Amino acid sequence: MGGISIRLNSLFRRRRSFRGGLYLPVRRDLAVPRGIRDFPDPPVLCVPMIQHDGPAARIVVQVGQRVQAGQVIGRGEKPDSLDVHAPLAGKVVALESVDTVRQSDVPAVRIATAPPVAESSEPSMALASTAPLTIEQLAELADEAGLIDFGQSATPLGRRLRQAATERLNDLIINALDFEPEPDDRNDLLDTSLDTIISSAVRLRKTLKARRLWLLVDRYDPHRVRRCRAAATGKPVRVLGLPNKYPQTHPNLLTHAVTGQEPPYGSSPARIGAFVLAIEALLALENASLHRRPLTRRLVTVTGDAVRKKGRYLIPLGTPFADVLQHVGLTGPVLRLIEGPLLTGRAVASVESVVTRQTARLLAVGRDHDYLANPGPCVRCGRCQDDCPVGLDPRALLDAYERGQIEEALPLWPHACLECGLCSFVCPAELPLSEAAARLKYLIPLKVQW
Fold it and tell me: Whole-model pTM?
């Protein structure tokens, strides 16, 4: 009877997963050594005034002016614009335009860096305070520090906090799952900053007045699950192990896995009382609220078959990719440089592009591993539809996009697409399914679909 009872319990237990998706193969060739490496200060920084999904900051420095590390060089005065700070001390030598991976001709400040003054302190926005903060105060600090949510959309974190203030939050969900199996960036942060992550999450829960606090980790890493649960003992934190099936880390899928509820079509988890935050965003918010430190460096994983010294580097914002490649060393010519994850990364047009707040990974592909898709006719296998985590028909979306039939695409719900790239990944005909769905999202206003 005991065995039957166990089987019945597992039968009726809610599965914390989603339909579709895929367990991606682990790319050991892209693995990087544990730990975070320092990056030498580059001689020149070109700091763009747009490093997120929002308008540009207004440049508030002049050519010839000396700046200190952490000093405001761009003021975010428009809605959803963010302050920009000097990552290093130096002298402003030019006000110019720079290309980032996502935008061209972005206003920027070129700084010739200088050795730090011996008595200088850490970059700081203002004197820190230990007094409890309101949500609005926390949102203002996030804007002043230039924080984004480090998610796929790179939304200003302050805006998300203000949206959360208008909803009644039940669940604060801290995500420690990696976007892809290799490289495991967030596991490094868990190993080095677990106590800080938990204490910061507890404070944020109190500020947001959320009923429950969750820390999500990989179920198939039992050692790390046990370590997180031991660190959370006696604290109002529920450590939950989830199967990291791609793209589990999308906020809507995480919310469904934790709460069993799905956010309304085209809306965020806050609409159903959930707030999802990645651990790197949580740590950045901790630095801004407790230590008044702005975001001036980005933790970037540099890997690929053409990279000699793979690793995770703390790189100043505005560092040209050319300087990054020079420091890590190359084993041969780089035929393709990709910023971002394997399935959704963007090809870099020029190594003069710079590191921004959105830069998390750089993949340098050499001659032996470079590959370009060769699209062919659809074989009607249905794999794209079977593996789509939200149940779309990517083949029909591609057909509507190629024919220019925008109105016909409305019933296909392109705005539900998570832009995970999985449909293109599994397509045996190598069709640009994900690209078509993403472009349709921006061609069709969301309000039309409501």
Answer: 0.89
